[in-house]
Amino acid sequence: MKNQKNVTNNGISNGNHNEITSASIINNKSQTNRAGLRVYKIVILGDGGVGKSAVTLQFVSHSFLDYHDPTIEDSYQQQAIIDNEPSCILDILDTAGQVEFTAMRDQYMRCGEGFIICYSICDRHSFQEAQEYRKLITRVRLTEDIPLVLVANKVDLQSQRKVSTEEGKALAAQFGCHFYETSAALRCNVDEVFYTLVREIRKKELQKTLSNETSSSEKVRSPRDKRNNNNNNSKWLRLRSIFALVFKRKRSNN
Ligand SMILES: Nc1nc2c(ncn2[C@@H]2O[C@H](COP(=O)(O)OP(=O)(O)O)[C@@H](O)[C@H]2O)c(=O)[nH]1
Ligand SMILES: [Mg+2]
């Protein structure tokens, strides 16, 4: 399992997991890596057992695992070229919903640039929980305007289906986001999920840049704005050290 972390599509293992993960997930600004590639911070959420890790691992390593420890919360990096734009890195945090990680979850919810909410078509409870994850993101971010993709996984298990495609589409319409039915087992629609999310992040970024350009000519930052910004920066730095420490401890326990 360990050697599948941080694998890029050219097969290069990053080998610098702690610093890159903590820096990229906790830093709330858009970011480039040492090679100057844009890094997109993506968080995958959903009930345990819906296939978050299977979908992520299919995306980064083109393999399906029958078993993946449900308590493992880890991040993976995948290099990709999407829509003829320069090569970029998708930094994916595969969450595991452990209670003791709640404070940290709030933090990466704040810092993620795009979210995937995943449920299983065989598990109605996981579908209901998808709404809770969406509420959580909205509560933490104080906005509904966050790049998001809703994923209904395990479509290969049609005979066990409990949630219809129409219900999934209706929920995505309610969220105002894209919807995919996937099978991690068959590698169906897996790339589409991640690529669509990056497109959404880019779209939002462009909208923001355009609106900033319009307003910056009119608006001068107040001293209070500057103070708040400084406070936020030092908060991020403190959290970054905590985050790195927790991951380090967890990894040495494994
Ligand atoms: N048939 C089938 N099984 C899947 C699929 N995705 C995940 N699984 C299985 O569901 C179980 C839970 O998957 P996992 O990725 O660990 O779920 P997580 O807790 O959300 O990360 C594992 O036994 C996986 O092999 C899928 O698309 N089809
Ligand atoms: Mg998992």
Automatic annotation (TrEMBL):
GO terms for MF: G protein activity; GTP binding
Enzyme class: hydrolase
Gene3D superfamilies in the cross-refs: P-loop containing nucleotide triphosphate hydrolases
Subcellular location, record wording: Cell membrane; Endomembrane system
Membrane topology category: Lipid-anchor
Regions that span the bilayer: none
GO CC annotation terms, alphabetical: endomembrane system; plasma membrane
Plastid recorded as keyword: no
Keyword GTP-binding included in the entry's annotation: yes
Composition bias, Basic and acidic residues: 216-228
One GO term (biological process): signal transduction
Main location: membrane
InterPro entries: P-loop_NTPase, Small_GTP-bd, Small_GTPase, Small_GTPase_Ras-type
Region listing for Disordered, in residue ranges: 209-233
UniProt entry keywords in alphabetical sequence: Cell membrane, GTP-binding, Hydrolase, Lipoprotein, Membrane, Methylation, Nucleotide-binding
Record EC number: 3.6.5.2
Entries under PROSITE patterns matching the protein: RAB, RAS
Protein origin, superkingdom: Eukaryota
NCBIfam families: small_GTP
PANTHER family the record matches: RAS, DI-RAS, AND RHEB FAMILY MEMBERS OF SMALL GTPASE SUPERFAMILY
Protein name: small monomeric GTPase
Organism: Polypedilum vanderplanki
Lineage: Eukaryota, Metazoa, Ecdysozoa, Arthropoda, Hexapoda
